[in-house]
Design goal:
By secondary structure, the chain is of the alpha/beta class. 31% of the residues lie in helices and 17% in strands. The protein has a single domain, classed as SPOUT methyltransferase, trefoil knot domain (Alpha/beta knot), CATH 3.40.1280. The mean pLDDT is 91.
Length: 159
Amino acid sequence: MHVVLHEPEIHYNAGNIGRTCAVTGCKLHLIGPLGFSLEDKYIKRAGMDYWYDLDIACYSDYGEFVIKNNGADVYMATTKGGVLYTDARFTPDVFLMFGKESAGIPEDILKRNRDKCVRIPMLAGRRSLNLANAVAIVVYEALRQNGFAGMEARSAALA
């Protein structure tokens, strides 16, 4: 599975998302421009020691991402999505895209991909969830749909 961040702005969110990717085996794709440096100590602190275990790809812009991932099955999380994320059917190689904290995924990209726009339900009048939380919610649903393949889903009972 793949997590795609379109122009992320906040290093703490990217670090936390990187940690989620590292523990779930998701590849992290960062589409620029980024609002922080990947060398920033804060991004590494938020990702803790997992940051070095990440499979990560960086792109200068959305166009480069599309060219390098031609034919990818990309779902876009947005408050404008017409389908609940739990109703989408995610493949094991799905790309889950999330937009920047201040504005989400650009409207023109969403309009070209209407059938792949999903939403997380929220109370009316609320703007959005924290980006790192939204990523975790959708990633774990995609993993659940695929039987948590390759993951340690069960552990020994507590003594």
